[in-house]
Amino acid sequence: MSYIASFDIGTTNTKGVLLSRDAKLHFEKDIAMTTMQDDQKIEQEPTQWFDAIVQIVAYWLQQGVQPTEIALVTFSGQMQDCIPIRQSGLPVRPAILYSDNRAQQQAISLKEKIGMDSIQTLTGNHLNETLTFPKILWYKEEEPELFSQTESILINAKDYVIRQLSGQNVTDPTSASTTGLFNLKAQKWIEDWLSLFDISSHILPKIYQSDEIVGQVTKEAAGRIGLAEGTPILCGVGDAGAATIGAGVTQIGKLYAYIGTTGWMAMLTDQVRQMPVGVFHLAYIEPKRYIVVPPIMNAGLVHQWAASVFATSTIEQQSAYEELEAAMQSANRKTSQLLFLPYLNGERYPVQDTKAAGIYLGIRPTTTRAEMSCAALEGVAMAMRQAMEQLTDGKPIQQITLIGGGSKSKIWNQIIADVLGVEVQIPVEPQYIPSLGAAALGFVKLGWTQNVTNFLRSSSQNMTRFFPTEELQEHLEKKYERYKRIYTAYKDLFV
């Protein structure tokens, strides 16, 4: 049997799955990731990404898969990172992740030196400290000795793994869109901006289209990982691009939502138009099409926090989530007035405030852990509603597709349907949707299917549907109006 190996390197887990020619999933495997976080610092060791790939491939081989049966390797992964590597391909330091907020001063300097009009015109986006460009400047200014040892700075976690497998420094247009250095319409790096800060453009990876083969598994890598030497490697696509494909969003104006550690709402468009600060335009896999993304900095992170605080089991155990799920069933959501602002890690949209934090509003002597847990997840759903209203200009929609690991929680899915006031549909295995999206490109490349649409048709999953609870709508509408006022009321108190 022949397979395509698809890997999705996320913040919480690295996932791997094999897809046979009939687009069926085989031997799914997840490996947990470790994040180092302290105040505004959020980092990961890149070596753990490759180690996870090694473990997943070893699992497949133990199941009887032969290395030569894997016809192609493709990837999705977390974007907007700053991953400095040496000439050897090994990391100089830990990767600075997309949610790291230390480059605030560098972002201000960039906007002053280049000008926001030029930045928005060329990149299609606003610029803040979470983009890769300010992170590169922070790295150069704060750690000059390490910077001098840096051959290249990679953008996406998958780019690091591709370097280990093939020796090539590459990235894709979707990932490049999150740097603040990418000309969105011309699809190339804006090298002049780097030269303003005495940084060589050679430090950036070469941009390939997501469906291009960028190299082959080298002899050395084959010995380390267990794949066959010469196995072709696809460039792959950043997680938002892969999720968009996998969610079946191939038509202009269609909407979906993703809940990982962070999350987003997204819609496909053929226009780059003026948007509020924090909303991204990302390159899509097709020319002159873009993904509009209002990001949600705190999504699955809030679920994880709630499980760690309100469950009696430790967060390392899956039982903590199961315990939380069961406990929330007892909460009376029809009468609860408890609100939660979910800005645990600051927020990028609809506000840009790295100092913002989580707030409970309305705790009473009778408030229970179950009610507080529901309020936390409800707060994320309200943040999602703000993003949805931005994308739809407030016009009603009937349905959205929800994907990502957070959508495994049935009660959260119901909360989201209730707060958004729309039908929410969940694929059977929502956590593997980005892997499917990345695999779709491989299927087309190998001629296993004619196009992405045909692949999606053959790989389509059954959907579980959640509908808004009619008797909750008036109550939640009033809560939502109060929710939108929380940040403004408390913003001057954040430290």
TrEMBL record:
Which Pfam families does this UniProt record tie to the protein? FGGY_C, FGGY_N
Presence of keyword Repeat = no
GO annotation (BP), single: carbohydrate metabolic process
Q: Which PANTHER family match?
A: SUGAR KINASE, XYLULOSE KINASE
Tell me where in this chain the Carbohydrate kinase FGGY C-terminal domain is found: 256-444
Name it.
Xylulokinase
Q: Which CDD domains match?
A: ASKHA_NBD_FGGY_CvXK-like
Q: Which family does it belong to?
A: Belongs to the FGGY kinase family.
| InterPro entries reported for this sequence | ATPase_NBD, Carb_kinase_FGGY, Carb_kinase_FGGY_CS, FGGY_C, FGGY_Carb_Kinase, FGGY_N
- Supply the alphabetized keyword list: Kinase, Transferase
**Domain Carbohydrate kinase FGGY N-terminal residues, every copy:** 3-246
Q: Which domain of life is it from?
A: Bacteria
One Gene Ontology term of the molecular function aspect: kinase activity
Question: Which organism was this protein described from?
Answer: Seinonella peptonophila
Alphabetized PROSITE patterns for the sequence: FGGY_KINASES_2
Is the keyword Iron assigned to this protein?
Answer: no
